[in-house]
Model the fold of this input.
Amino acid sequence: GEDVEQSLFLSVREGDSSVINCTYTDSSSTYLYWYKQEPGAGLQLLTYIFSNMDMKQDQRLTVLLNKKDKHLSLRIADTQTGDSAIYFCAGISGGYNKLIFGAGTRLAVHP
Amino acid sequence: NAGVTQTPKFQVLKTGQSMTLQCAQDMNHEYMSWYRQDPGMGLRLIHYSVGAGITDQGEVPNGYNVSRSTTEDFPLRLLSAAPSQTSVYFCASHTAGHQETQYFGPGTRLLVL
Done:
């Protein structure tokens, strides 16, 4: 089955770029996702990438997928204090709707 | 649309008590799921349903029951609560063929003493 790993904490200065990394094991995962969770809230789908793509850009967000190394990254340009949250990487394992989540990376943005 | 709603927001139980966490969605989604979130472990799938009358187990189903009598509702039952079930529970739904977007509810925080 799928196993997803990500670093637990990242601290960046406001205005800098943030890069959150994730590795996964199941190369058959059709989609790979990034979710954002703000304090006390549920998960919000931030962006996703189809497995046959290498890159996807959406405004300040850039997702890079290295299928050979099974490595996924999320780059946030011009990071703002409102970007402070926990970011979860997730993949699909086996069954159609079984999302497998990483442990989450807590992004702290400081002035 | 209200999206995915969950009740209650918070609950405190004593060991051995039973309760039902409610989840409803008004988007006519076929697929619904229950996850629990524990510190440092991300979200883990408890049970899921691919349509009314059809449910299946996820990664961590022990101690939980589900049913899906309607498309809209997917309640999660704790038969005899244990401290290990202290967690934040999230319900999610999506429509068939669009697994790239799962809509999550706001969560239920459960404390079992």
Observations:
- Chain A touches chain B through 26 residues (CB under 8 Å).
- The mean pLDDT of chain A is 89.
- The longest strand of chain A covers residues 43-50.
